[in-house]
UniProtKB/TrEMBL annotation:
Chief location bin: membrane
Compartment(s) of residence: Membrane
Listed GO CC annotations: membrane
UniProt protein name: Calcium/sodium antiporter
Membrane topology of the entry: Multi-pass membrane protein
Superkingdom of the source species: Bacteria
Gene3D superfamilies per the UniProt record, alphabetical: NCX, central ion-binding region
Keywords: Membrane, Transmembrane, Transmembrane helix
One GO term (biological process): transmembrane transport
Length: 63
């Protein structure tokens, strides 16, 4: 039980860190290319958050 709780906490911390890095990288893209943040949010961030589901769906359909 203790191991499960530790893994849960570590997983949550990693998700929070990954989300922070995603937002940071998206803001750099906005500044570098002069793209409005709304466009970056609707495309890059949405694709990034949907990508795991897309990969699982493609892998499942191939099997």
């Amino acid at each position: 039980m203790l191991l499960a709780m530790a893994l849960l906490i570590i997983g949550l911390l990693l998700v929070a860190y990954g989300a922070d890095r995603l937002v940071f990288a998206a803001s750099i893209l906005c500044r570098t290319f002069g793209i409005p943040p709304l466009i970056i949010g609707m495309t890059v961030v949405s694709i990034g958050t949907s990508l795991p589901e897309i990969i699982v769906s493609v892998a499942a359909s191939l099997h």
